[in-house]
Amino acid sequence: MKNQALCRRLDQVTPVPCPCGESTRIITRSDNLGFNLHVTLIGDSTRHYHRECTEVYTILEGTGKISLDDQVEEVGPGSVVVIPPLVRHRLWSDKPEKPVRVHIVGIPAWDPEDEHFE
Fold this sequence. Notes:
Layout: E1 16-18, E2 21-27, E3 36-42, E4 48-49, E5 54-61, E6 64-68, E7 71-75, E8 80-83, E9 89-93, E10 100-107, E11 116-117
């Protein structure tokens, strides 16, 4: 099978509600690329973990905090957070009226069956 280039714009994808807030899922598991790319608005996410997926969060807008197991870090534009499998994580905004805008890459691609809540 020949490799195919993919060009998709953020405004071509309809955002969907998720436990983290609202996610625009630009590249998904169904694209068969081995990763996903979501842009998610997070006011206060639900603590969760993945058994298989490593996630990389890049904060685009807003400020907040992220808990990684028992560690809490401040995040803002330009912050990059790598979340390996099994690390319980939750991100929340410092300002409830202004969600944090996060670029999320998951490897392998996010699978709803691999999202586990406590």
